[in-house]
Amino acid sequence: MARPGNKIIQAKMVLLGDMGTGKTSLVLRFVKGQFLDHQEPTIGAAFFTQILSLTEATVKFDIWDTAGQERYHSLAPMYYRGAAAAVVVYDISKMDTFTRAKKWVEELQRQGNSNLVMALVANKCDLEPKREVETEEGEQFAQENGMFYIETSAKTAENINELFYEIAKRLAKAFPSKPTGMNLNNEVRDRRKLSCCLG
Amino acid sequence: MYGAQSKRDLALEFQSQIPILRPSIHARRANLTVKFQDLYGFTVEGNVDDVNVLNEVREKVRKQGRVWWALEANKGANWYLEPSISEGIALKSSLKFSTLANAITLKRLIRNGIPPLLRPKVWFSLSGAAKKKSTVPESYYNDLTKAVEGKVTPATRQIDHDLPRTFPGHPWLDTPEGHAALRRVLVGYSFRDSDVGYCQGLNYVAALLLLVMKTEEDAFWMLAVLLENVLVNDCYTNNLSGCHVEQRVFKDLLAKKCPRIATHLEALDFDVSLVATEWFLCLFSKSLPSETALRVWDVLFYEGAKVLFHVALAFFKMKEDELLLTHHVGDVINILQKTTHHLFDPDDLLTVAFDKIGSMTTNTISKQRKKQEPAVMAELDQRLRRLNSLKLDDK
Ligand SMILES: Nc1nc2c(ncn2[C@@H]2O[C@H](COP(=O)(O)OP(=O)(O)OP(=O)(O)O)[C@@H](O)[C@H]2O)c(=O)[nH]1
Ligand SMILES: [Mg+2]
């Protein structure tokens, strides 16, 4: 895991998106390698952790998976406050979830953290026959908003690791090089540093 | 007609079974995690100690049942159904002494737990659901479910989406019959109160009500009394403002009742609402083992929404020492989650919740809510304006 001399990044990540788009499923696939056909709706938010080791850094993710239903919107700021990365998810088989995703992106941009690493995730790409949102639409919106775009399936695991690796890489890059030898006990302090560098 | 009959059989089946769980010898030796069904049919994972605790709980439930039966034999079957006994009324001098005595007995008795077999009857009367139902024609629920059959609204679409996602794998809830019953209750309610419509979280609450109450119709009335009388207003409506108020009150209470923890969590930049929101919206149905959650509900329906604060504070109180040693948000959450998931003995929780937290009257809590309301409204309003300005910029 953490190599000696490798920098350690403690990063808060938040998942946002309409209800049932697969936020919880994406995280569970990444953290536990599992997928459930019937995933319980998230109330408020759920918390997960996962560690990814890159050559340039070790990223420790604190993941907040939020509730998707519109009325839970009013709770969201508490979860995205201080986040270093945000993953906005929609379901390719439902156009209205893409519309909602765009709103999330706008809201995130206004909350003032210009270093926020943002991903636009087109999930459920295994449902190709039912596709309502074309790849180009997603790609274009992502590009216009300085995010990276990726099509995933929590069900088949397609692109799940890629998604989180890409975020980790971008976080590592966003961090100015720090002296090596930071230790794990300084998590709180590191996190503070992260939020001051990134937001 | 609504599948209530076979539902009833099923609920009874869970309760009459009450088998003594015997983990296999292999599990004992290896202290492995075993999976088993609890009193209400939920699959629980735990180690051998947990199984032993659950067996003890079953024994206590039986004993508590005998206490209730003895009282019925002594005072008459409906002795507790006298005029509603809230803190305020208990002070009225016009009240007969026997009523007062009953009130005191009843409060203690309920904190010790209502036997599962008596729950439907006791909840229905003491919560006010029976009274609520009696103010409308007998056929209200049947008429309502018939009238809304086949109607499609945003709420019904969301309900349909969530039916198979509500306690998946439960032997009754996750069957076509269970889905249909839950659907009728939630859809019916969404039409009864269109401000609430459907709020995620209510699916879990209604599901548990269905398992406890003997009929679907009674579950519906319990849901109604819960949202309309027991909990604060607007917990589940459009921007969950009631829930925001409760969270602020809870933060203040934590600072008062567990000051060291509150200070420590603040230093970690940990906002308790991050975890407490789910507790308050699902009424612990997602975080506590079923019998423990229902023991909380026993008191909730009798003493009111302040009980939720008692219980939430108890989690922190129980783990005070451990929580004070944490350095990281993730550790705090892990401790709380592990604690709630393993509270198989309801008395462990309720003893702390009521004896160690100290008393809080409904009155003082109401005052604190009043104090927080303007701040919540201002915050939500400001946010809405910011979001709207965002839309205007688009044009
Ligand atoms: N076919 C397919 N189904 C998926 C995929 N991801 C999730 N699902 C299903 O979609 C449903 C919703 O998934 P969740 O992960 O609970 O969605 P969510 O965004 O967390 O939903 P909320 O918590 O309600 O906001 C579940 O029943 C999943 O099994 C996917 O990639 N492909
Ligand atoms: Mg979810």
TrEMBL record, chain A:
Keyword GTP-binding set for record: yes
GO cellular component: endosome membrane
Primary location class: membrane
Entries under InterPro entries matching the protein: P-loop_NTPase, Small_GTP-bd, Small_GTPase
Keyword Oxidoreductase: no
GO annotation terms (biological process): protein transport; vacuolar transport
Gene3D superfamilies hit by this protein: P-loop containing nucleotide triphosphate hydrolases
Subcellular location: Endosome membrane; Prevacuolar compartment membrane
One function term, GO molecular function aspect: GTPase activity
Keywords of the record: GTP-binding, Lipoprotein, Membrane, Nucleotide-binding, Prenylation, Protein transport, Transport
Membrane topology classification: Lipid-anchor
Coiled-coil intervals: none
Protein family according to the UniProt entry: Belongs to the small GTPase superfamily. Rab family.
Protein name according to UniProt: Ras-related protein RHN1
Source species: Morus notabilis
UniProtKB/TrEMBL annotation, chain B:
SMART domains in the record: TBC
GO MF entry, a single one: GTPase activator activity
One Pfam assignment: RabGAP-TBC
InterPro entries linked to this entry: Rab-GAP-TBC_dom, Rab-GAP_TBC_sf, Rab_GAP_TBC_domain
Residue ranges occupied by any Rab-GAP TBC domain in the UniProt entry: 113-304
Top-level taxon of the source organism: Eukaryota
Name of the protein described by the UniProt record: TBC1 domain family member 2A
The organism of origin for this protein: Morus notabilis
